[in-house]
Amino acid sequence: MQPQDSGIQYSRWDGGSRDAVHVAAVGSTGEASSWERISRKLCSGKLGISMKVLGGLALFWVVFILGYITGYYVHKCK
């Protein structure tokens, strides 16, 4: 078995076939790093939803413009 301070927890549901394995950062002190806090704030809640929508729209327009430029040069009359 793994030592308790490894950050890995294994639990089996009673009478079921579902197993759960939880992995935590080794040596974590309970405090989230600044990157984890920023990531959690930008990726969850209303701000997270709006960031994902804006990112999706930006990705759509980048692909659209690249496709337009590519199509222009592929179908250009000689």
Automatic annotation (TrEMBL):
Keywords: Membrane, Transmembrane, Transmembrane helix. The keyword Transmembrane helix applies. InterPro entries: SMIM1. Pfam families: DUF4731 (PF15875). The chain crosses the membrane at residues 54-74. One of its GO terms (molecular function) is protein homodimerization activity. Signal peptide: none annotated. It comes from the Eukaryota. One of its GO terms (cellular component) is plasma membrane. This is Small integral membrane protein 1 (Vel blood group). It comes from Canis lupus dingo. The gene is SMIM1.
